[in-house]
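In this section we walk through a basic example: taking a raw amino acid sequence and producing a predicted 3D structure, encoded as discrete structure tokens. The instruction is simple. Fold the sequence below.
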Amino acid sequence: MVLSWPYRVHSHTPYWGETNAQANFCEEDYILTPYIAEFINTLTNITYLIYAFHGISNNANRKDAVWRNLPYLGIAAVGFGSAIFHATMKNYAQWCDDLSMLVAVATVVHRVFTFDKPLSTTVITGAAIVGTMTVFSAWHCITDEITMHSVLFAVMIVIVGLKTRSIISMRVKDLIVAKEVRKLATWGGVIFISGFGIWNIDNAICSSLTTWKRGLGMPWSFVLELHGWWHILTGVGAYIFIALVEYLTSDEAGQPLGGKFAWPVNLIVNGRAGEPG
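The resulting token sequence is shown next.
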């Protein structure tokens, strides 16, 4: 294809040694450089870091910044953990990826269940979540299993989604604002689930995708690295839910959404809806 360069016939000799992670993805390993196993799958983790930086920056001068920022630190951990995993494709690095995902969701679970509770309850709940995650993480690493990790992750995502919906009903009384908030929650879920669907397409037709990518040449073929789109779309979806939970569990709950949210929130909702005419 015009303005493209062909793939190598054989991959580079891996700087990190032969891959041994349980999971592997459709992107060809060490095809661009000997130092990064899956280049695009590594690079797209910057999505999580950008949104984490935006959220933390917005909270710089808030007195409750520590509690607000825990979920953003969680998605930053996902960005770093996943990047390390895709860069090396080593088994120990996969643990970083797997466990960072659980930590990120656990911080949001903690927030939605403790935002209106006394500090003592918040601390005890946090300790219980940390203890549970520690025990599960140790078991996960020792047994090297992946099924229960996926199950626990999915269960926590569903819990956050359901609890968020109940908080909207409880905290947002203005019908116009509530409509925009529910729309944002719906789109956050749709974007996140779309990422999961695209990842499964990546798994299902990997051999065809590889043929197409080699036919297109780089960099046009990078568009077909569908696991990278999982990172981008789940990064966007996760940010929307984290920012929405931050709004719902703060003193700003019920007020018009405003313009403080990162892209693409301004494309989804009218931040001025509900403002006095």
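Looking at the output, two observations stand out. The chain has a mean pLDDT of 93. DSSP finds ten helices and no strands in the chain. In the next section we compare this with other chains.
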